[in-house]
Amino acid sequence: MLPAKMVLYESSNAKCFKWKSLVESSISDASMGRGNFLHNTYERVSHFEEVAEFISRQVLEIKCDIETQKLSSDTDYACHLVFKLSQKCHGLQCPVKVQDLLHRKNKEFQYIYFRSPRFVYLQGNGRVPKYRADGLMEVIVWEFNSGNNDHVPMSLKLRCYEGNMSGLIVYGIEFRPT
User: Fold this and answer.
1) Are 170 and 83 in contact (CB under 8 A)?
2) pTM for this prediction
3) Which of 31, 73, 100, 172 is most buried, with most CB under 10 Å away?
């Protein structure tokens, strides 16, 4: 698992998101009538010390080197983006395009959703979010094989074509065998 601070990338000088401590984010939820989150969930998600709340951007970039010595060798893994949507989030109804920037030549991409769509027309490559036991949500953004290397580079661009990602709160990325 990697926290947002280690995986989110800002490609411009424009402020894409604001950093909040988990306690600050939880208190904000409590003041908006979601007090159960503060008491019931804080201990279960405390491994995420800081979260990133998107201000008004259409693009989210994820870049990191995954240290494979912490993973089982030659195993397929899924990368789960762990997030929640703030009360201020009114968008993200449409699919978001995920492009692997390290493999641009193959021009393949995925679609993910941050909200479960009413009608799912996935064309074989769409992914919908799932609720977690800790009160957060997750969606698979990438898959890889750990191989026998020391690290696996990951560079993804998520683009929202309708509206923006304002109100998306990113906690981090979790890696789990598929």
Assistant:
1) yes
2) 0.83
3) 172
